[in-house]
Amino acid sequence: MNYEFKTNIEKKEYDQFTQKAEILSFMQEYGWAFVKHEWKHFHCGLYCDGKLVATALVLKRSLPLGISLMYIPRGILIDYKDQEILKVFTEYLRKLAKREHAYVVKIDPNFCYKEYSIKEIEKKEPVEIPINYSIDYKLKHQNLLSCGYRFKGYTKSIQDTLQPRYHMYIPLINTKNEFLTPAEVKTSFKKRIRSYIGNYHEKRGVTYFHTSDPKYLDMFMEVITQTEKRQNIRLRNKAYFEKMMEEYKGESYLFFGMLNLETYLNFLKDNNGKEDEIEEVTNLLKKGQSEIVLSAAFVMIPQNKGIKTSEYLYAGNHLLFTKLNVSVGLVYEICKYSLEQKCQYCNLGGINGTFDDHLTPFKSRFNAVVFEFAGEYDLAIQKVRYHLYEFGMPVLKKIYRFIRRK
Length: 406
Known about the structure:
- It is a single chain.
- With 406 residues, the chain is of the alpha+beta class.
- It has two domains: 3-108 and 376-404, Gcn5-related N-acetyltransferase (GNAT) (Aminopeptidase, 3-Layer(aba) Sandwich); 180-343, Gcn5-related N-acetyltransferase (GNAT) (Aminopeptidase, 3-Layer(aba) Sandwich).
- The protein contains 16 helices and 15 strands.
- An eight-stranded mixed sheet has the order 6-14-8-13-12-11-10-9.
- Strand 12 (309-317), helix 13 (326-340) and strand 13 (345-351) form a beta-alpha-beta unit.
- The two termini are 39 Å apart.
């Protein structure tokens, strides 16, 4: 077989390959390089007898203390079961890394070590779920080791890796990989949140809509800013989301949960609402507000042909009227649209593997499935420097936190 390796594949060819992927992350797509513009990038591809058989978005970053590394977010888009192709691709990666003076190439492949329901953690009983991401894990893992990659272990903390190992996914399919109906998805949620979806919100004036128009980003950022203040965290600025929507046209969406204040005021008056609530709504109406955004989310939906997963990436909630739990209804709306887009899963995002962080309680309300990803694998290029940085420097975790933000 004749192999050829390129580091500057054209967008059209790259996109045609990624769209055929059995499982795809938006971070493996062509546009992610331009969102992560602080990194130097290479759109790499391996050809076998003239046919493109694997791609990888390779990012290069110069870090403090003279450290330089390469990183392939969500790993190479390759058949990890094919040891020969994986080995050939890896050798070309070595050559590229040496040329670019990188001491390591880090990957975090887009397959799982395990998949299991959060109910198994909560109730200590087995739950049957669809399995797609962890198929042939042992073979894929062993092939990576055989090609010289060093496994970084089954870490649990979000801070230990560039991408969280643990995520919570809402299955939109059954164990036979058949699509659920929206009603079946709703039924799968915990009973205590199902009551908020549908009639409860409608009677109170809550409505939902989604858009791919970036002109709504100002409305989105208002809610994000409130969330940052409440949780004392930093998310992303408007320019970041503008770039995402520019690079991922047709795949990026803004979802909103709105409250019509007039409808809510009438509901409160007709149902013995508390005086302070009635006064609060009345004052907002007097200020000229007719409706407010109570919850918003930024969602990605890659358009590959195989298993599709929508990504609930960023979300925020208004400080007012939190008891309405509009964020619950918003997740359901995202699930419904994901079904329309033929998605098998909705990813609610990363959590700690100890399940004791502030994110897990909200995400577990949807009886989500825990995706325990394979984790990080390192291809050491400069072995002395690699061991010095990876094992002898406690500052490495601070470096991880730095590059996670970039």
